[in-house]
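Reopening this ticket.

The earlier resolution said the output was attached, but the attachment link was broken on my side. Pasting everything inline this time so it's all in one place.
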Amino acid sequence: MTENLTSHDPRTGLPVGEVPVTPPEEVPAVVERSRKAFSEWKQLDHKERRAYLKRFKQTVLEQGEHIAEVVRSETGKPLSEAYSTDVVSGLTVMDYYIRNAEKLLQPRRGGSWPFVTTKGWTEYHPRGVAGVITPWNYPFFLAMIPTITALSAGCSVVLKPSEITPLTGQLFAELAEQAGLPPDLVQVIHGNGATGAALAESSVDVLAFTGSTEVGKLVAAEAAKRLTPVILELGGNDAMVVLDDADLKQTARAALWGGMINAGQACISVERLYVVDSIYDEFLLELDRVFDRVAVATEDEREIGPIIHPPQLAVIEAHVQDAVDKGARVVRGGKRAVTESGIYFEPTLLVDVDHSMTIVQEETFGPVIPVIRVSDGREALRLANDTRFGLHGSVWSEDRDRAKRFASQMKSGTVAVNDVAVNFIVPTVSFGGIGDSGSGSNFGEDGIRTTFCYPKSITAARLPRATSKLLGIWQPRRGMRYWKALARTLFRW
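Inline output:
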């Protein structure tokens, strides 16, 4: 008897659909079907693949509202937010790689100095079957990033979506079929951690994992047994720094949006807010004022959405309570919202926060903004870098050169200047974390070249008959007197 996985709407707790579970023992067979699809897909040139992927993008565009409705049914986020952050962001990355993959994967010529008799270049070839494991907070967009990048590189894909949002994951197989992609090129498997582990243990040629740091480390350890390349986009504890010359009204609005987007359930949301002392009081008044723009369970433009995964609510509550126990003060919210159904946490503003508190040291992943007063920019930088994470951050100043210098010193894979959370929707530049926030990069040329392709370097003799004589390496080789004279000639300047 086939076991089914049931999806629930976090706004009501009611079931919204179910999908069949893929038993772990069946995963190797799925991967082998994917390998057969890859063997045919890789033979197509970029123009032929582009034609398929353009139809895939057109299908997503046509089905956009339906996709957003499915995302909303499983995450509870407002429909407009589901459309903008999952569908439009997904289309953005699709469009980028469909337009640019051929150019990004062109062979790269390399210099050969001082070996002038040789020329060299590097080609980029698809790795093969890409295993993709994705989370529940942005179930369509975060699955689309590795899927479209892998397909554009020439790989096939086996996608394992979160068991919390399986219906959105299943959409990938349906959309791929509707778009006329070759059979088994995009396959979706379902289940809990055992199914994900089976994919990590399988013969896939590359693994892309987005999720928690703890699970990411397990995936990396498993992949290391077979030396399978892995890209890890993990948790964040992102710092926002407000310097003394920032536009306070604009910055307060940005802090609110950055902390409340998807009810704080985003790896690039504002988790720590540092404000210099000279503007602290004025900024806090402005931030408190704009909190009137957000609420829960209102079904209007103020709605931030529910907590998608019920166990996360306990984490948020524990972090807030720890902060209060250690001296923090709740200005707004601070508790779960009382509703007839669903799981919500009130938009929360905390002050008198310091680095002894768990809410500063760990990822809260909820609608909570802890504000930390600092004496100046130097202290702000020191504290912003006092973290084991390093995914995203932002700095705010009317002096753009000053802000850019500050951004360059932040210990983070990505930083925004006078903006927040935008790096994850700009596919032209790489996105990746350091430390406990992961390794490898999405987006840009790094996302396709170094993740889903392997480099093959080729050299060719310019003058085959003269090479051995000019270099004097082949037998009978030249003596030390020749090599010393050559070194002085080539490298003295």
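Reporter confirms the inline version is readable. The CA atoms of residues 179 and 384 lie 45 Å apart. The chain has three domains: 4-234+443-454, 239-423, 463-491.
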